[in-house]
Design a protein that fits this description.
heterodimer; A: alpha/beta; seven-stranded mixed sheet; two-stranded antiparallel sheet; elongated; B: 6 strands; 16% helix; 41% strand; globular
């Protein structure tokens, strides 16, 4: 290869570029985190949906030299047949045109799996940049009796440094940084053995000298030659024209004369070279020792015990997620309600106050309320991933998932979606096959997430009778379980259909490594969780906020002046009525207090303090009876004070009721109210009136919003207690149409609402996440469209069925 | 000679070759299914598919359809 590395000149301001790459499960991310710490930035590679993580680090105390570190997606080989696979070679070669050419490449090799690491390393050396080899998990290798001669290995790869490291304990990281800095400062004069056969070398030389201007690396030409119809070939032909294609085909024909199939020329050379170097530097006997992991797997992958342990792990995980997240979610809710209340006191009443308190603070609050669940879920997933159990879970369920067109790799995304579809969809990144990944994204939101629970809870409590069967089964519980099952069944059917129509997996395989068990480190888990939570807040959060504000505006405007004036008048009348009654009572009280004996002047204060504790009209008489017994001589005083307190309580309740009525009146006459009435005919076959239709439309940002909207529509206020909402819903009657006077909410209507919410995609965060993860609004709109259509259809069937048999 | 999917769990053997030259074969090669390499068929998943095979130092999972591509000379 001649001089592989040449010194380049740099402007003083530009940090050196270093790329880090390696096999999946080689510990690349752990080492990346150990080198950069929290100095990380997450973005996407252009045009594809693979995450691009970059970090920074520096070497040297005085005059520290700055470096940027690019995390190249883990891969077994640079061979690329899809755009996603093409990222590795493209990133290592400096992207389009090579402007981002790394100054050095760190190649991570799992020391317990050296031979396979060498296969990738020999491909990377062809790029022609200086390479530092990090032999990771060297402690594990030594414990397994694998002895590696570092010096010899370094000589075999042309003199590039080989650094033993233990990534999860941070050992060797400092030396790895220093060797990288040293290598860039003084690149060695390197000459590598050519190990490809003459036919391949001839084609390589011919192409390289003919297209001299393009400065492609040998590694890129290897991809052009061997990845038939791959992205490298497409780009080459696009850039160099048709003649280049002819030349390439002539070259391939020449190689095929010696090798059949074509790719054997490369794989044989690489495998042979890797084995050669491996055999000359390492001595081990694999099968003589039974690994600890294998012993554990006899139980964890046992045909009966394995699935049982998996089920138990899942149940425990969700138990923890729900019980741990609850207090945090309540705390966030209380904080934001408090903040909104406090801000409301600082601002004059009006659209600005409502926008800030209901729109912005409410919107931010609803975004942040997701975080405790997402963070706790990600902690569990990161631990399960880092320990190596996740690959085993995928292994256990693969066959079952394949029945409905998914794969074992869809397991984690589907599992996460029971908490929230957003992290579920984000977790599909580990699925390499594009079609399989898209199917998983399309059906993950059908899992029953936690946001559906408040809707189910209220509908079931109101309309499903509390009936027990056999002492343990309860009808309400059965309905809830059926709703969970409905999501699963619909997901299975949808993925079955999609996998045989629009998303046919082309080369769906389940070739993956089952890594040995490792102890996860706190640092690695925390960094993973932090990055994912951050990307949720930044990506989904901003859009959810925007949607929330739009929905706020639609339900706030137009503000009817007439309604305002009318309610202000009613409020004045109400106040006046209570004020006059109060004045009469207070005059009487003053009279009575004047007549109190000297030693009992404080009595009046004590009694009214006791009365002030009472907030509810219903309990007031009880206290009065007690006070009368305590002060038998002052019956009239106690009566008067109780009367005053009663007036006060009633006054506050009436004002609150008036406020709720006003909010309801405004909502009904808002753009949303009009929209609800306009679309009512479309929802009549589902048994819904325009108020339900409107509340459903308003809950587009998040399903649970329907509860607050129904509360407002029924004049109970947005924070209505579920008991009063349930009572109200039972009383609501049709105001017009053929069913006038009959109750709106029946069991059939409740079921149709629940079925609709089980299947629909009423979740702005999910829609936005689908857009982010598929890099296209098309799929986001498609997911929303098919789910809404399906939800409507099933709700229709359920309503007609149950209404038909008289529910 | 037989194919990997026809072997019994617990059986060992040596990779002989492949039945086709698809990207899947290529991935199998990259993962270590190299002719001449000895393998150890560890176990099946609960529904018999996929299966776990030890190749060199690493354990790999593959489906029966993929295992059918690998020609193996079983050990006695």
């Amino acid at each position: 290869m001649g001089r592989a590395a040449t010194a380049r000149t740099y402007s003083a301001t530009r940090p050196y570029r270093v790329a880090i790459c390696g096999n999946p499960n080689s510990g690349k991310t752990t080492i990346f985190n150990a080198i950069t710490g929290l100095n990380q930035k997450v973005a996407n590679y252009p045009g594809v949906t693979v995450e691009k993580v970059t970090g920074r680090f520096s070497v040297g105390k005085e005059n520290p030299q700055q470096f940027t570190l690019l995390d190249v997606p883990g891969t077994y080989s640079l061979a690329a047949f899809t755009p996603d696979e093409y990222i590795a070679i493209s990133a290592l070669s400096g992207g389009p045109g090579g402007q981002q050419m790394p100054d050095a490449i760190i190649c991570i090799i799992d020391a317990t799996n050296l031979e396979r690491g060498l296969y990738l390393l020999f491909q990377i050396l062809e790029i022609g940049r200086p390479v530092v080899v990090a032999l990771n998990m060297i402690d594990l290798a030594q414990r397994r009796g694998i002895q590696i001669d570092f010096e010899k290995l370094s000589r075999a790869i042309g003199g590039f440094p080989v650094v033993p490291v233990v990534g999860n304990r941070g050992q060797g990281i400092e030396r790895l940084k220093q060797e990288t800095a040293k290598l860039i400062a003084t690149p060695p004069d390197i000459s590598l053995n050519r190990f490809y056969d003459d036919a391949t070398e001839n084609v390589l030389t011919e192409l390289q000298s003919y297209f001299d201007q393009a400065h492609r690396t040998r590694a890129e030409y290897l991809r052009i030659i061997f990845d038939v119809n791959g992205p490298a070939e497409a780009k080459f032909v696009r850039e160099e024209g048709h003649e280049a294609r002819n030349m390439l085909e002539r070259g391939r024909t020449a190689i095929r004369k010696v090798w059949s199939p074509l790719s054997a020329a490369e794989t044989t050379a690489l495998t042979r070279r890797a084995a050669e170097v491996f055999n000359s530097t390492v001595i081990i006997d694999h099968f003589s020792q039974r690994m600890l992991s294998d012993k554990v797997d006899r139980y964890l992958l046992h045909r009966l015990l394995g699935p049982l342990v998996l089920l138990l792990t899942m149940v425990l995980m969700f138990q923890f997620i729900f019980s741990w997240a609850q207090p945090f979610m309540e705390m966030i809710d209380v904080m934001f309600t408090g903040l909104a209340g406090w801000v409301a006191t600082l601002m004059p009443e009006g659209p600005m106050q409502s926008l800030i308190t209901d729109g912005v603070i409410g919107g931010v609050g609803s975004v942040l309320a997701f975080i405790p669940q997402i963070a706790i879920l990600f902690i569990f997933i990161a631990i399960l991933e880092d320990s190596g159990y996740m690959s085993r879970a995928a292994f256990l369920v693969d066959r079952m998932f394949r029945w409905c067109g998914l794969s074992g790799k869809s397991f984690i995304p589907m599992l996460s979606s029971f908490a929230c579809a957003v992290p579920g969809i984000m977790a599909t990144r580990t699925i390499e096959d594009r079609n399989l990944r898209f199917i998983t994204i399309m059906v993950a939101p059908l899992m029953t997430c936690s946001a559906r629970l408040p809707v189910y809870a209220i509908m079931i409590a109101a309309f499903v009778p509390y009936k027990s069967y056999f002492g343990v089964l309860n009808l309400q519980g059965i309905v809830l379980a059926l709703l969970y099952l409905l999501g699963l069944v619909v997901a299975a059917v949808v993925s079955f259909v999609m996998s045989r129509t629009i998303f046919r997996a082309e080369r769906d395989t389940f070739l993956m490594e089952i890594p040995s068990y490792k102890l996860p480190t706190v640092k690695s888990v925390l960094i993973k969780v932090l990055n994912r939570v951050k990307s949720f807040v930044v990506r989904a959060g901003t859009i959810i906020l925007a949607i929330t504000i739009i929905i706020w505006a639609l339900s706030y405007y137009p503000r009817s002046r007439a309604v305002e004036v009318e309610f202000a008048r009613q409020e004045t009348t109400l106040q006046a009525r209570y004020d006059s009654a109060r004045m009469v009572a207070q005059a009487k009280l003053a009279e009575l207090e004047r007549n109190l004996p000297e030693d009992e002047v404080n009595l009046s204060g004590a009694v009214s303090d006791a009365l002030a504790q009472i907030e509810d009209e219903v309990v007031l008489p009880e206290l009065k009876v007690q006070l009368l017994a305590d002060y038998p001589a002052h019956e009239e005083l106690v009566e008067t004070l109780s009367g005053l307190r009663l007036l006060q309580i009633r006054r506050e309740a009436s004002l609150r009721e008036l406020d709720n009525k006003r909010a309801g009146q405004h909502l009904r006459s808002s753009y949303f109210g009009r929209l609800g009435r306009a679309v009512e005919p479309a929802f009549l076959p589902l048994g819904w009136d325009w108020k339900i239709a409107m509340a459903t439309l308003a809950s587009f940002p998040a399903r649970e919003v329907i509860i607050a909207t129904l509360g407002t529509i029924y004049n109970l206020g947005a924070d209505a207690k579920s008991v009063s909402l349930v009572n109200k819903m039972r009383q609501v009657k049709w105001e017009n149409g053929p069913k006038t006077g009959k109750p709106v909410f029946t069991l059939a209507v409740a079921l149709s609402i629940m079925v609709f919410f089980a299947i629909c995609c009423q979740c702005g965060a999910t829609v936005v996440t689908i857009k982010q993860e598929t890099a296209s609004w098309y799929y986001a709109v498609f997911a929303f469209g098919y789910m809404t259509a399906l939800a409507y259809l099933l709700a229709l069937v359920v309503y007609q069925l149950f209404a038909g048999i008289g529910f | 000679m037989t194919y990997l999917d026809k072997m019994m769990p617990g059986q060992r053997g040596t990779v002989v070759g492949f039945t086709d030259d698809s990207p899947v074969t290529r991935r199998l090669l990259e993962l270590g299914f190299v002719p001449g390499r000895s393998i150890n068929y560890l176990r099946n998943a609960p529904l018999r598919d996929p299966m776990e095979v030890q190749v060199g130092p690493s354990c790999l999972s593959l489906r029966r359809a993929e295992a059918a591509l690998v020609a193996v000379e079983p050990e006695d």
